[in-house]
TrEMBL record:
<dbReference type="InterPro" id="IPR012340">
    <property type="entry name" value="NA-bd_OB-fold"/>
</dbReference>
<dbReference type="Pfam" id="PF17783">
    <property type="entry name" value="WHD_CvfB"/>
</dbReference>
<dbReference type="InterPro" id="IPR048588">
    <property type="entry name" value="CvfB_S1_2nd"/>
</dbReference>
<dbReference type="InterPro" id="IPR036388">
    <property type="entry name" value="WH-like_DNA-bd_sf"/>
</dbReference>
<feature type="domain" description="S1 motif">
    <location>
        <begin position="70"/>
        <end position="136"/>
    </location>
</feature>
<dbReference type="GO" id="GO:0003676">
    <property type="term" value="F:nucleic acid binding"/>
</dbReference>
<feature type="domain" description="S1 motif">
    <location>
        <begin position="152"/>
        <end position="219"/>
    </location>
</feature>
<dbReference type="InterPro" id="IPR039566">
    <property type="entry name" value="CvfB_S1_st"/>
</dbReference>
<dbReference type="Pfam" id="PF21191">
    <property type="entry name" value="CvfB_1st"/>
</dbReference>
<dbReference type="InterPro" id="IPR014464">
    <property type="entry name" value="CvfB_fam"/>
</dbReference>
<dbReference type="InterPro" id="IPR048587">
    <property type="entry name" value="CvfB_S1_3rd"/>
</dbReference>
<dbReference type="InterPro" id="IPR003029">
    <property type="entry name" value="S1_domain"/>
</dbReference>
<comment type="similarity">
    <text>Belongs to the CvfB family.</text>
</comment>
<protein>
    <submittedName>
        <fullName>RNA-binding protein</fullName>
    </submittedName>
</protein>
<dbReference type="Pfam" id="PF13509">
    <property type="entry name" value="S1_2"/>
</dbReference>
<feature type="domain" description="S1 motif">
    <location>
        <begin position="4"/>
        <end position="65"/>
    </location>
</feature>
<dbReference type="Pfam" id="PF21543">
    <property type="entry name" value="CvfB_2nd"/>
</dbReference>
Length: 297
C-alpha cells in the first residue's frame, strides 16, 4: 500500500542526504523529511511520527510538525488569505496553507468568508493526490455535536456559520468543551442581515427542537425589540418632511421587511406602542406623527 498525503504515520529514518535532510520509509517507499521539518533530534534507525503532504514541487514529503487536521477529521480552520480565482487559503498549522477551492464557496459573493473567519472543513485530495479542504456539512458535524437541553431556550450563545443560504443560515452554537456544540438554524425572518460562511455571530436560542437542534434569532426579546423598533419607526417619521410615511398595518410584509428589516408582526407591535403613547396615528395606509395633526388643528 502506497503512502498517502494527509495522514500521520510512523516511519523509519533510513538515510541522510545533505543538504536536504533525512529520508523516512515504510519499507517500500521513501519520502524526504527536510531538515526544516524536523522537531527535536533524530538519528538513522529511529521511528518518527510524521505527517505526509505534497511540497511546492508536487513531491510527497514528510514533516514532524502536527497539523490542525488529518484525513477523516473535521476541524475549524481560519481563513488567512483569499485568491479571487482559486478560493480561500486556510491555516493548517504547518507553516503552509490549505486550499478551500472556489467551487466550495457560496455563489453569492456577500456570503463568502473573509480573512479572519473560520470554517468547518474536512481534508480531501485532488486528482493528483494533493491536499484540499472541503466544507463540512451536517452529516459530518452532527456526530461531533450534542443535543441541546431544554434549559438552553433564551440562552445567548456564540455561533459559527457552516452553511449560509438566503432561505436560512445554518450554524454551530458553541457549547463549551463537549464536541463542537449544537446545530442551529436562523430563519431569514430572524436575521438582521445576511451572514457569511465562517462568520461568528451572537444569537439567542428561540426554540429547542425534539431532535436536539435549535432555532436561533439575531433579534432581541420581543419587549426589547419592540422598544428598539419603535424608536426606529419614530426616527423615520421625524426625518420625513411632513412627519408621515406610506406604511401602516395594511402594508405588505415584504415591503416592511425591506424598509425596516423587521417582520410585519414586529412592525405592528412597535406601531401599537407608539399609538398607545399618543406619538403617532394612522390615516388610511399612512402613519403620521401626532404633533403634525396637533399643529394642523
Amino acid at each position: 500500500m502506497s503512502l498517502v498525503a494527509g495522514n500521520m504515520i510512523p516511519l523509519e529514518v533510513v538515510r541522510e542526504v545533505s543538504p536536504n535532510g533525512y529520508y523516512v520509509s515504510d519499507g517500500r517507499q521513501e519520502v524526504l523529511l527536510h531538515y526544516s521539518e524536523i522537531v527535536g533530534e533524530i538519528e538513522i534507525g529511529d521511528e518518527v511520527e510524521v505527517f505526509l503532504f505534497y511540497d511546492t514541487e508536487d513531491r510527497l514529503a514528510a514533516t514532524m510538525r502536527k497539523p490542525l487536521i488529518t484525513l477523516g477529521e473535521v476541524a475549524l480552520l481560519e481563513v488567512v488569505d483569499i485568491h479571487r480565482r482559486f478560493g480561500c487559503f486556510l491555516e493548517m498549522g504547518l507553516g503552509r496553507n490549505l486550499l478551500l477551492p472556489f467551487k466550495e464557496l457560496p455563489e453569492l459573493s456577500e456570503l463568502r468568508p473573509v480573512v479572519g473567519d473560520k470554517v468547518f472543513v474536512t481534508l480531501s485530495h485532488d486528482r493528483q493526490g494533493r491536499l484540499l479542504a472541503q466544507l463540512a456539512g451536517e452529516q459530518e458535524l452532527r456526530p461531533l455535536c450534542f443535543d441541546a437541553p431544554a434549559s438552553w431556550k433564551n440562552k445567548e450563545v456564540r455561533a459559527r456559520v457552516y452553511k449560509p443560504l438566503q432561505k436560512g443560515t445554518f450554524v454551530v452554537c458553541e457549547g463549551g468543551v463537549v464536541g463542537f456544540g449544537v446545530i442551529g438554524m436562523i430563519h431569514p425572518s430572524e436575521r438582521t442581515r445576511l451572514l457569511r460562511l465562517g462568520e461568528a455571530v451572537d444569537v439567542r436560542i428561540s426554540f429547542v427542537r425534539e431532535d436536539g437542534n435549535v432555532n436561533c434569532t439575531m433579534r432581541p426579546p420581543k419587549q426589547i425589540g419592540r422598544d428598539e423598533d419603535a424608536e426606529r419607526i419614530l426616527k423615520a417619521l421625524k426625518d420625513r418632511p411632513n412627519g408621515a410615511m406610506p406604511y401602516s398595518d395594511e402594508t405588505p410584509a415584504d415591503v416592511i421587511n425591506s424598509r425596516f428589516q423587521i417582520s410585519k408582526s414586529a412592525f405592528k407591535r412597535a406601531l401599537g406602542k407608539l399609538m398607545k403613547a399618543g406619538l403617532v396615528y394612522q390615516k388610511g395606509s399612512w402613519t403620521h406623527l401626532t404633533q403634525e395633526r396637533d399643529d394642523g388643528q
